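[stage:ingest] chain + small molecule (2-(butylsulfanyl)adenosine)
[stage:ingest] validated
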Amino acid sequence: MPKKSKPEDPKNRIIELRKEINRHNDLYYKDNAPVISDKEFDLLVKELQKLEKEFPEFSDVSSPTAQVGSDLSPQFSKFKHKVPVLSLENTYNEVELSEWIEKTGSEEEYSLEWKIDGASILLYYENGTLVNCVTRGTGGIGDIVTENVKTISTIPKTLSEPLNLSVRGEIFMTFSDFEEFNEEYGGKFANPRNLAAGSIKQKDPLEVAKRPLRIFVYDVYFFSSRKGINSHKDILSLLKKEKFPLAPDTTILVGNKLVKEIESFRKKKDKMPFPVDGLVIKLNSLNLRENLGETSHSPRWARAFKFDALLKETTIEEIDFAIGRTGKVTPRAKVTPISLAGTTVTYATLHNQDYINQLGAGIGAKVLISKRGEIIPAVEKVTFPPKTVFVLPKECPSCNTKLAKVDDSVDFFCTNRHCPERKLNQLIFFCSKKQMNIEGLGERQIQIFFEKGWVKDIPDLYTLEKYRSDILALDGFGEKSVKIIFDAIQKSKEKDFRFTLPSIGLNEVGPKVTEILIENGYDSWDKLLTLSKSKTASEDLSAIHGIGPRTVDALLGHLKDKETLKLVSTLVKLGLKFQADETEKSDIQPFVGQSWCVTGSFENFQPRDLAMDLITKHGGKKVTGVSSKTTHLLYGPGAGSKLEKAKELGVTLVSESEFLDLLQKEGIRIG
Ligand code: IVH
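[stage:predict] done
[stage:export] C-alpha cells:
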C-alpha cells in the first residue's frame, strides 16, 4: 500500500488511491492473484469514496469508484452487456448490516443466500436458446467465453419457452474436486476460486472440459416482458423450473429476522463443500428494488455480508525447514501464536525462495497469515518489512548436502537419500494411519527408535523384534504399548499394493497415482517392472488419464533405480505385498466386461466410492476418467465435465435411481 499523502493534499491522495485500487483490481480480476484481503481493499475504496464526496471538484468518471473491477482478457471477443452488471457493497458486521436493513425496511422481505466464491458469469438466452456466455468484465463489457462455459453440463442449452433473458450465476469448484484436480497438476493452484476463474479463460474448451467446474445461478435480467415475475422468489422458482442449479439454503424472511438467521449460516459455513466468502442479502420485491435504484457500482437493494476474514496479523520469530520424504525443502515461518479459524497457528508455510522474495519476508517481519483451502496456514503478505529478506541456506540443514533444483521446479531438494531428516519423514509417512497404519508408532516413537539407531530405514521396522527388550527398558514403553506396536507391524503385512507402493516415499507416486495404475492393469511391482523394460513404456503410461508427464518420468526413473529395486525386493522378502488384492467378488456378476466411471453426488452413496465398490464387487471395472473404453457413467446432481464427454462418446448414462433399480433387479443389496 502506498504511504498516505498529507491530509492537506487530497488531490494527490485521490490520484494515489485510484492508482492503487486499479492495481488491485487487475491483480484480482486479471491475474486471479490478489495480494490484499477484501477488507483491506474495501478500506481503500471507502477512503476514496469519502474524499471524492468531500472534494467533488476532483471527481472523475473513470475513477474506480464509478466502475466495477475489470476481468477482461485480450484473447476473447467482447460483448456489450445489455444491462450494467453490478457488484455488491460489502458489510462486515451485524451493526453495519442492521443499519442498512433499518434504512431499507425491517418489515420487508429479503432473501438470504450464500455468496459463492467463484467467477461471475452471464448466460444470454435468445428465444429460449443459450447464445452467449459472457464474463462480467468491466460490468459494461465482458469476454465471450461461451464454448468454455458450455462444458458445464448442468447449464440448460434451451429453455421451455422462447424467452429473451440473461441468467447470472457463479462458476465455482467444490473443495474436493479442487483438491483432486490440483493433485493431478502437482498442486500448482492456490485455491478453488483462482482455478475456476482461470479455467473459464482457457484458450481450449477441451482443456476446460477436463476441469470439474460447476455453476449456481442467482438472478435473471429480462429483455422482454417479465410476466408474472414480481419477486426474487419468483425468479428462483423460474430458474428451478428451467432446471438451473441453485445454491442450497436460500431463504426468504423479514428484515428483523435476518441477523439471527445469519448466525445459523455462520455455523454452517465451514462445513460447506464449496467456497463461500459471505452471504448476500437482497430485497425480495422487484418493485421495491426499482424504487431504490442503484449507484454506478452496486444496487441499493442488496448487500454482501462478509464473515470474519480468514487473515490475521502476527510476527515471524524464526524460519526453519521441513525436509519432506522426497527431499523437498520447505521453509516455514515460526510465528507468534495466533488463533485462526478455530486453531492456534504457530507455523506457516513460506513455500519456497521465490515466494519469500515476492513477499519480502524475513525474521522480525509483521505478516498476514491465511488458511489456504482452509487447511495449511500460509504467510500471505508482509505488512512491516524485516531488516533483511530471508535467503535459504545453500546446504541441507540436516545433512549439509548441497541443495539442488530438480527440473524446472521452484523448490530446492536435498538429494542425499540418506539425509537423516528425510529418512525420518519417510518413516513417519510409512507408518501413518492413511498409509501402513502402524498403530503405536507415531512421530515421537519413530524419532526415538531412529535416534537409537534401531530403525534407520523402512525394512528395519520388520526386524525390530530384536530390540524388544531394549524398547521395554525405555521410559513410557510398557508391555501393552509395545505389544500394540509389534502387532501393528505384523498386521501391516496384510496391506496390499494400494498401500505399499505409495508408502515407500517415491516422488510423484502417491495413493491416487497408485489407484490409477491398478485400474489400468498395473496392479503389481512386477507388472510395472515388465512395463519399464518395454520400448513403449513411456507412451503406454502417458496414455493413461490422470498420469501426467512428470509422473511418467519419475516412475520410470524409480523402476530403474538400484536402491529402490533393492528396497522393494527386501520388503518382499520380509513378507510385504507388492501386488494388489483382488477386490471382493460376489456370485452375482452383472457388471462383467463393463467399465464404469462416476460423477456428481448421490443420496444413497456417500462417499460415492460406495457405489463404485458395488460395481467392482459384482464384476465391473472402475475407471477415474471417461474415455472411449468407458461403457457406463453413473451420474448425480452437480455432475461435472465427465457427463458432457460421456454424452459425446455415447457412453451409457445411469442416474442414481436407475442404478438403484438395476441393483434391485439383480438382487444386489446396498451396504
Ligand atoms: S447478486 C446486483 N448473489 O459476488 C447483484 N452475487 O461481490 C449482483 N456472488 O459480482 C450480485 N454469490 O459474482 C449475488 N448469491 C449471490 C452471489 C453473488 C456470489 C458474487 C457475484 C458478484 C460478487 C459481488
